[in-house]
Amino acid sequence: MNSAISTVPPVPKGNFPHYMLKETYEQPEAIRETLRRHLSSDGTRIVLDSSKLSEAEIAKFTRITIAASGASRHAGLAGKQMFEDIAGISVEVEYASEYGNRNNLTSPDNLVLLITQSGETADVVSAQREAKLKSSKTLALTNVQDSTVARDADAVFYTYAGREVAIPATKSFTTALAGLYILALYFAQCRGVLTSEKLKASVAELEKTANLMGQTLPDFDSRLKPLARRYFMAHTFFFLGRAVHFPVALEGALKLKEISYIHAEGYPTGELAHGPTALLEPSFPVVVMATRDTTDEDSVNRYEKTIGNLKTIRSRSECVIVIATEGDVEVTQLCDEVIFVPAANELLSPILEIVPLQLLAYYIAVWNHYDVDRPRNLVKSVQQE
Predict the structure, then answer these.
(1) Rounded alpha-carbon distances, angstroms, from residue 223 to 133, 151, 226, 338, 351
(2) pLDDT tens digit sequence for 169-223
(3) Is the pTM of this model over 0.70?
(4) Care to name a GO molecular-function term for this sequence (predicted)?
């Protein structure tokens, strides 16, 4: 998830030592602004920034293909579950760089959703071009107005993260998550399956999530700095999550690779037994997403499976870090470190869960004296396919 900035602009860091940390703290307000910009003046409907497609035309799409790269693709994987659960529409998620290599991804009833922070990522621009050649309609979710992808799309949803100076995506990732949740509500609205009561409750849940993030950020910060010191010399990590939390695991692993130069892999929790578990040993760090929404039966079932997995992991690794829901007593017996996040709606919990993983990667990089804002070999916008 990249922007078109190639050099660090003269944006003040304030009291923060790095842009990445500053932008991590800007996430709650960025999410609130993204929500505010997409509510009608009376708060009763979701609106896009621009669209050549009517709501009736939107309602006719039976499938969405998401094309994105990097952190944007991870957001898209979470968005897949949001669209399917909220709007009842089938979603595929494709690497933007691979989109043109498949011939069955476009049809008149298929909408192509392009996610790119900068709106200029070469692979995403190419995917949009390919979709248009095959007469598919495109919807752009981007943070940069008047970018190439936005100009060429049939409909546009802007995230309002503001400029992201650091190369690692923080606020652009969480506003993409929020934006996809809002878009899922919009599609449900177009399809006639979103009641006014459901919209009001969903908006309140997103506002609550942003507020909870703001309240807990300082605690996460103080907790993760010393925790990172314990692991800053590690050589490899696993990040594990189920369902909507699997993309969080992928993003946590990506952050660690990007700025800490530590090998890390994200897996669905249940897949660990299918090969990767052979690598586990006492000193192998494993980060497990084990939150739960007690009002959601599927979430509770997923959590119970994760508890079973944790028992096995704990028997093989002495470096188990768990992201859990506040008040969870059971999980504390199955790990070395637990980071509690506030209870949240199942589909919105990734917005909270990613913050401690962002800070874990950040402080591991800081303890290693790496350039957090400008990691080696990386640019804000990949301009080569």
Answers:
(1) 50, 43, 6, 10, 18
(2) 999 999 999 999 999 999 999 999 999 999 999 999 999 999 999 999 999 999 9
(3) yes
(4) glutamine-fructose-6-phosphate transaminase (isomerizing) activity
